[in-house]
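Exercise 7. Given the encoded structure of a 862-residue chain, write a plausible sequence.
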């Protein structure tokens, strides 16, 4: 049967229909939801209650439609922020984009669009005129005449009316008027469920006059797929009860050479008899967890005023009482159905009486389940019904023409029919709000680096983008903290992020504590990238030589203060501070740390106690571990390189007790004092790097961050970078096995984006969940702790490694307020992927330090 398109004209977000109604539509991106804290979820439900209460009385339609995401669309988002004329400046990123096509083709990617359509009230003369105009349009269509133009005054009036409705929608839902193209797309999508359906590009409306509905290809609905049966005898024996689906065909599908769409329609007939438990009642917000891909939903709403609802409820209670008395003598087991109905009606009446803002909502929820064939669609529909049954909801999958009718009432502009009334449920705005239909379970940014797959909704995979290197331009901070047991994926994630950042033009300063110098493996793949090793230095990090006297003096001051313990309160601290004044250094022509030591120990220095200061510095300067700072003749590195790995393996660091107790601090060994001072110098240099070139983002990356945060000086520099990251185009990325090792409460609270990989035990997981912002009293906390230990990249006991296919699973709490589960992806480019996964042998690490200015030669040597 041909399903006629109900429109006579389309203009912007308005649709004139053949029955005299004018519908207005909006797309609602939805409120961030995902896997947020319980109190935040409750706030989302409260916002839905406000939305339902502000809807105009009468009919409306809510839609949730699943659309595919093409790899091309993902790659286009990867290039967002890089002007096309500068693409050639990022050849490595273009190669990564090209390789990403192959990676994404193995995943069924998609997203859900949510719409709200409301028929505008016909006020005044329109009550009589609009049905008459609609009747005239039907006559004109039958005679083959062109549609009559809509007067400009009527257009302006209806647009103003739609604007008033939109103004009542709570602003957090961010309603946007649909376009004519989107209205057409909704029909095309409904006719192609189960086939490739990509979203239409949204562009501003430019048509001054209404468009004809002829641009919509009217679908043909074949109930039970009778056209697929070639044998007439089999056709006659077709049992409608075993063919509860529709086959949908359109000329547009035929023109594209695509097959027909097979869909099975399911209606929800009942909800949990003992009420909606929240969280857990989000049957619309969680529909993609049902295990079936591409399930669309539609809700036909009819709002009834409070007084009218009270009158209807009182009448219903009276009828129930009559039935109860008539059957009082019936023998039953358990609670009688009438008793249950009476209890629910009494509660419902009490809600309406106690809340003056409450309203009655009559709603019918319809699900469209696609399949590759009629039989497959029905199998998928049964799985959806089983999922609802597990939630104490009842469903119905009707046969025959009811399938066709349910398909039709899911479309905007189609008038209510008896089948909607047959499946209607009565409820209040408070209860329906617990289903949270307009929620957004997306995760991360809209574009940037495809860091992983959003698995918050297991049945609807979407790409998790991170665009942290551009956050400073938006007034945000791109700081990141990663937490998780060793071997669960945090280091691979950091390496992948470093590759993505430097290939897009950022700079990364990586503090590498690993004995294998695993981050050094990245250097040959980044032009100009190199390693600086204090144990066997090929380059100097003397701040005066690297940055010059004006900039380097402050860095050297941080280093020598931590090294000698001559702080501002020490009697010799003033001498050291005066000697490191840029004017003093220039006056005495001191341009290197070794030169400063010679000057302090010479007759030319008249500063009081200079010889004692020199003695304290010389204790360390003559040791092999300090050559990177004091040895003359070492060349200076190119600090503008995209990737600089600052190796710290082999350096000793003081313990927390040694730093906290003065008598132990005074007895600390020289290597530990140098290690502490060296970390302070590295963070101070990173802070300087961030301000030297604000045209690009500078990342300061530290794996095993406890070595950094254990030093007060280095943590203080890290906090300063984090605080100033918005203005300095800088960010700090930290990783640690324990959340408590990510620094002081001040530092941890300042880092906006947090990612938690699997944990080894319950104690570590509790620490992580608290760091993510979940309180001990949150009902979701025990489940999260259990998931982090048992179900996040679980370890195979036989091998001691993560189970195949479960690598990279993590919890993400993003700076923009989104939160949920994800599976992190490795780089798509083969060479980058290999460098991310493998730890280099010692010989290769040595080769990486040979020549930072010639990565090709370094790679060949390695």
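Solution.
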């Amino acid at each position: 049967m041909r399903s006629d398109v109900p429109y006579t004209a389309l203009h912007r977000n308005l649709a004139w229909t053949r029955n005299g109604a004018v519908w207005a539509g909006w797309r609602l991106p939805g409120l961030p939801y995902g896997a947020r804290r319980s109190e935040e979820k409750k706030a989302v439900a409260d916002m839905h209650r406000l939305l339902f209460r502000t809807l105009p009385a009468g009919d409306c339609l809510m839609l949730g439609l699943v659309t595919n995401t093409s790899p091309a669309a993902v790659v286009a988002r990867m290039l967002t922020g890089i002007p096309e004329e500068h693409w050639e400046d990022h050849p490595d990123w273009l190669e990564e984009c090209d390789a990403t096509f192959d990676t994404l083709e193995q995943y069924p990617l998609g997203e859900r669009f949510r719409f709200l359509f409301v028929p505008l009230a016909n006020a005044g003369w329109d009550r009589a005129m609009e049905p008459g105009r609609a009747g005239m349009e039907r006559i004109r269509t039958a005679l083959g005449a062109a549609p009559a133009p809509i007067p400009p005054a009527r257009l302006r009036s209806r647009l103003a009316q739609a604007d008033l409705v939109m103004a009542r929608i709570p602003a957090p839902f961010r309603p946007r008027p649909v376009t004519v193209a989107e209205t057409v797309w909704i029909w095309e999508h409904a006719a192609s469920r189960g086939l490739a359906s990509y979203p239409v590009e949204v562009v501003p409306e430019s048509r001054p006059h209404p468009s004809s509905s002829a641009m919509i290809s009217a679908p043909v609905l074949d109930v039970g797929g009778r056209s697929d049966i070639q044998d007439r005898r089999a056709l006659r024996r077709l049992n409608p009860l075993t063919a509860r689906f529709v086959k949908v065909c359109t000329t547009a599908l035929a023109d594209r050479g695509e097959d027909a769409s097979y869909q099975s329609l399911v209606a929800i007939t009942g909800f949990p008899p003992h009420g909606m438990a929240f969280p857990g009642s989000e049957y619309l917000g969680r529909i993609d967890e049902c295990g079936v891909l591409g399930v669309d939903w539609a809700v036909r709403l009819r709002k009834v005023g409070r007084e009218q609802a009270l009158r209807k409820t009182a009448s219903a209670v009276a009828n129930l009482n009559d039935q109860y008395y008539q059957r009082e003598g019936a023998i039953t087991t358990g609670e009688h159905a009438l008793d249950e109905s009476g209890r629910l009606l009494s509660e419902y009446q009490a809600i309406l009486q106690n809340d003056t803002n409450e309203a009655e909502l009559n709603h019918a929820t319809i699900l469209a389940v696609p399949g590759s064939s009629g039989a497959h669609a029905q199998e998928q529909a049964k799985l959806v019904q089983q999922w609802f049954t597990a939630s104490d909801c009842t469903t119905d999958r009707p046969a025959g023409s009811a399938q066709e009718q349910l398909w039709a009432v899911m479309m905007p502009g189609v008038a209510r029919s008896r089948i909607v009334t047959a499946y209607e449920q009565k409820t209040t705005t408070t209860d329906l709000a617990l289903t949270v239909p307009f929620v957004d379970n997306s995760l991360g940014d809209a574009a940037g680096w495809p860091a992983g797959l959003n698995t918050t909704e297991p049945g609807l995979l979407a790409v998790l983008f991170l665009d942290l290197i551009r956050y400073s331009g938006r007034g945000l901070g791109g700081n990141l903290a990663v937490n998780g047991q060793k071997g669960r994926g945090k280091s691979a994630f950091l390496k992948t992020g470093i590759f993505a950042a430097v290939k897009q033009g950022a700079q990364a300063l990586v503090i590498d504590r690993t004995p294998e110098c695993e981050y050094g493996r990245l250097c040959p793949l980044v032009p100009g990238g190199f390693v600086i090793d204090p144990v066997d230095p090929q380059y100097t990090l003397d701040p005066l030589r690297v940055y010059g006297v004006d900039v380097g003096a402050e860095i050297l001051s941080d280093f020598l203060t931590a090294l000698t313990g001559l702080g501002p309160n020490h009697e010799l601290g003033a001498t050291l501070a005066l000697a490191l004044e840029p004017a003093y250094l220039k006056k005495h022509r001191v341009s290197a740390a070794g030169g400063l030591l010679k000057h302090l120990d010479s007759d030319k220095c008249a500063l009081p106690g200079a010889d004692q200061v020199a003695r304290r510095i010389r204790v360390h300067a003559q040791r092999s571990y300090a050559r990177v700072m004091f040895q003359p003749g070492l060349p200076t590195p190119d600090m503008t390189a995209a990737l600089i790995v600052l190796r710290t393996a082999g350096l000793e660091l003081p313990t927390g007790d040694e730093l906290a107790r003065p008598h132990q601090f005074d007895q600390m060994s020289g290597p530990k004092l140098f290690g502490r001072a060296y970390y302070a110098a590295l963070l101070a240099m990173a802070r300087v790097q961030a301000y030297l070139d604000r045209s690009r983002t500078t990342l300061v990356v530290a794996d095993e961050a406890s070595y950094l945060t254990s030093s007060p000086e280095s943590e203080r520099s890290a906090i300063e970078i984090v605080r100033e990251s918005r203005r300095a185009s800088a960010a700090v990325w930290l990783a640690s096995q324990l959340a408590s090792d990510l620094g002081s409460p001040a530092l941890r609270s300042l880092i906006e984006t947090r990612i938690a990989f699997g944990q080894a035990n319950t104690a570590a997981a509790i620490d992580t969940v608290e760091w993510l912002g979940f309180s001990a009293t949150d009902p979701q906390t025990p489940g999260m702790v259990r998931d982090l230990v048992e179900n996040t990249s679980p370890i195979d006991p036989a091998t001691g490694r993560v189970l195949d296919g479960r690598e990279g699973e993590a919890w993400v709490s993003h700076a923009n307020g989104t939160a949920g589960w994800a599976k992190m992806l490795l780089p798509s480019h083969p060479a980058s992927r290999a460098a991310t996964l493998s730890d280099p042998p010692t010989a290769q690490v040595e080769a990486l330090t040979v020549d930072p200015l010639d990565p090709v030669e370094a790679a060949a040597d390695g």
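Remark. The radius of gyration is 34 Å. Students should compare their own answers with the one above.
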